[in-house]
Amino acid sequence: MVETVRRSAISRTMLDIEEHSSWIRKMFVEGARLKARVGAHNVIDLSLGNPDQPPSPKMIGTMVALLQRELQLDAGRNQHSYMPNAGFPEVRNRVAEYLNKTQNPASALTSEQVIMTCGAGGALNVIFKALLNPGDEVLTPDPFFPEYEFYAANHGGKLVTAPTGADFELYPAAMERAIGPRTKAILINSPNNPTGVIYQEKTLRDLADIIRQKENEYDQDIFLVADQPYAGLVFDGARLPSIFEIFPHSLLASSFSKDLSLAGERIGYIGINPSAPDAQALANALITANRILGFVNAPALAQRLAAEYLGEVVGLEEYQSRRNLMYAALTDMGYEVLKPQGTFYMWVKTPIDDLVFVEKARDEHNLLAVPGRGFGQRGQNHIRLALCVPQSDLLRSLPAFQALAKSMG
To answer: What is the DSSP letter of 356?
Structure first.
């Protein structure tokens, strides 16, 4: 009797994504297994970018007040009903006012140029759905947040990468070489996950000049998309350059996940540069994408809460203190460390292969980190450390890093 093997009902695309899932996800799974085996209190997990600073008591009070206010409204007014797919008009108007102050666009934004989304990840999927035709390319500097590859593929696109400079600053010449006739969007993430680098204004202006030249060469619009969920987490008084001021064909994707420690609330937004070509048609496409992707609208309560705290940042001083602690300690041990200008990550060069280092740290010291290859960096031997853990955990990690350094000479 010939035995047949039934084909899986799961799509080949999803099976392939699962097989090549991000190292962040892999370390999450490895971490869960390790914690189950040795006890969570014995594991030092520096692999996940999950903000540990709680929202401020004032913010919690605002959330309670929003719910109490609802009880005082007329019985027929359900504050949890559907609203326009772009979000509450009053919330969008406040975000527009905030972007006018921080982005200094040539023309002022109105609520028509703001779409509330389910976090920055939702915002990027909405943007790619609205922009990409099958086979179009999204160009991003390397290293990059690994989900970008899947976000582009979700909508028939392809992620293309270009190397950064020795200091991991965006390298305009490399970006220029990577732009081709199928380039539809250039995606930048600053402050950058995983390096913590802030791309400087001159570098971005050089990139904008290159994009203009390529638009003329290929006779098509190319959008500069700024993914900025860490916009508020910048250290030492650094300034984040305005994308809207630098390039008219631009979109901004952001969230309140990191700035306000509301990652689980899934609330973010898209800002459209009013100077963008076909800005109204683009807004309509983004709103439609928000609906048909199944997001429908951003969470109602989270929209109203976030609107009250635009521009505020939770835990900035604490994250900067942790950065200073780890930078001083690791450099004293002899590690080569890129001092982050923002985010709550640290990019550390390892003396051996990054994956071997991560496995040694896990197996010998119950210490979890993400190898640099998880961010597109093959052969560069870096690891990403997440500093969004209690300072006591960071202090507990130092003997492990010291022991690893000694064992490798």
So the answer is: H
* pLDDT tens digits for range 340-379: 999 999 999 999 999 999 999 999 999 999 999 989 887 6
- Give the separation between CA 373 and CA 92, rounded to whole angstroms: 38
Structural domains counted in the chain:
2
The answer to whether 266 and 302 are in contact (CB under 8 A) is: yes
Alpha-carbon Rg for the chain in angstroms: 22
Q: What is the CATH number of the domain that holds 402?
A: 3.90.1150.10
User: Residue 202's domain spans which residues?
Assistant: 82-307
Structure tokens at 236: 């030492």
This prediction has a pTM of: 0.93
CA atoms of 251 and 241, how far apart (whole Å): 14
Which of 291, 307, 323 terminates a domain? The answer is: 307
Give the 3-state secondary structure of 222-290: CEEEEECCCCCCECCCCCCCCHHHHCCCEEEEEECCCCCCCHHHCCEEEEECCCCCCHHHHHHHHHHHH
Which tokens go with 305?
């809460």
**Could you tell me if 98 and 42 lie in one domain?**
no
pLDDT, tens digit (0-9, with 9 covering 90-100), for 107-118 = 999 999 999 999
Whether residue 271 contacts residue 114, with contact meaning beta carbons closer than 8 Å, is answered with: yes
CA distance linking residue 193 with residue 372, whole number of Å: 11
